[in-house]
Design brief:
Oligomer: single chain
Radius of gyration: 29 Å
Number of strands: 18
CATH superfamily of the largest domain: TruD, catalytic domain
Distance between the termini: 45 Å
Number of helices: 20
Largest sheet: 9 strands, mixed
Amino acid sequence: MEKEKNFSNLSENDVGITEFLNTKNSGFSCVLKHRYSDFIVNEIDINGKIVWLKDSTNNIINNNNENNNENLTEESISNLLSTTFKPFLKTEEDHNKLFKFLINYIHKIHIINDKITLNYIEDKNTRKIFHEKIRFHFPFLESETILNPLTKKQEINILYISNKNYYKRRKIFPDNKKNILYFSLMKKNIETVTAISYLSKMLHRSNKTLKFCGNKDKRGITTQKVSAFNTLPNEIEKIVNSKNWNKNILIGNYEFNEKELKLGMLKGNQFSVVLRFVDKNIENDFKEIVNEINKNGFINYFGMQRFGVSNVSTNEIGKFVIKKNFKMAVLNILNTDCVNNALKQIKKEENIFDLFNDENHMNFINDIIKIIPNYSIEFKLLNNYKKSGKNSFQSSFNSLNKQLQVLYPHAYQSYIWNLCVSERIKKYGKKLIFGDIVKKHDSLYKEINQEENEQIDENDNLNENNNENDNNNNENNNENNINEESNKIFNDNFEYINESNISNYEFCDLVIPIVGYQVHYPKNDIKNFIEELLKKDEITLNDFKYNNNKNFNSPGYFRKVIEKPLNNITYEFLHHDEADEDLQNPFYNIEEHPHPKGNKFTSIRIIFQLPQSTYATMLFREISKNSSAGNFQANLSKNFKEKK
């Protein structure tokens, strides 16, 4: 059994983050995320609009169909039939039938499954409107068009719904085409996946019905768009206002849309970050540091949060997913404090790996499920495993939200990319060399989010013969696998550096591929470096193609080595007397951030925007020359408190 490094001790070096762009800046001492409110993130949607939670009751669109039947009287029914339904009721007989049918219901003398038959409405659109109005005004009724087997004629049947709860779940949307609810979700010190799982559990539905554009930091206050299929605002408001609701999750700003959100459907993120306890004398130097970042950017590493907060880093789990070893993938996901503490409570001293090696491990699964939170990933995996039976590891993994499933293999690809960037800079510095790949100046190629990449498969025309059986013939050489379309995309947007074009480009134009089964690789020893990394992990390029699951296909794409803020960084030095004083307001779009007074401590608040899939912690690292690893920053914060 492979032993994995405990994530709590994971360092930047462990995930390939080793180099700096500007080595002249020696950095300065500071603490990042001393308080989780020191790190505020607001998503920037695909149209460039910043996502705010303006008000938790903003734009509520009521759905009153649940209570329609409670307000019905003989008079109101008569008025409805004489006005709203008059164009649809062809005869007086139809009118009287429906009136009596409704009166029987409100006087509770109806018979379940009883029905009436009305004359057929010839026009299809008119008939459709009639059905919709019946369901809206009388949600306890069902209407249907059927062919009478005796008369061989079409007719309309109206019947009572036998399941009392059914009509309460029926939803009326302002526009039938727009049954996707968008809303802003603000979370405080919670992982995105955990917040989504919790919301879906409270709504009593699969978390697959909830979609978001990207993961946000756990330790911080983050606001992002979420979409929910077939959901109304008052359903969410009902649970948000309940006693059991987690008050660290706020929701509002509702609107309806036709399409669900997808990973990668964002322009970027806006950050407001406080660096605490800096030296008072760095103000002049800091201006120069910020100007350098605005001008030249920073190394576009995948940040530490990319690699998870579990006991095992997500790139290690991703390695098992890519190798299709779902047993090891699932067991490593389950190797959390949550599960390990549950094991202790049921007096099982062994770890999760030992438990599953026990022939009788199914006897203990139910005991663990009773202890751990029912909205957790661990609960989802174990509950599915219990239902599916022994060794159902792939089924359990597939039970996770698709957006979570793909994070693991993408974390491994991110890890390989980080290692390649560090190797490239260590070996050749910040200059271009022959064989490098650069993005053309006139390129329209969209820099995409890695999660989005699963849906942007450049290989729809890929020869079906290029399957997993080709591994022996083409383990780490993908040149024959690159199809005509991918070659065209590359030739239109990128080129290899050679003697004739090297003077046309700068280091900031350099891209390095995210490893995949169909992407161009540098024509220098960086390609060899990638091959050696994969060989060490016993992974081939064809392992990134899943013939039986297109969602996991990873053709590969290009990522810029250097990234710059979308706008110039702005900053403010803050002087305060209380070490733990609130220095930020998550609603700073409406009310300004605090402006404290004092002189005992100095902190800096910086505000900036970054493109999607770019990490603010990597900008912080370049500015301060401090490690962004959570354990490192936590120790700094702890040591400062002890000194204080």
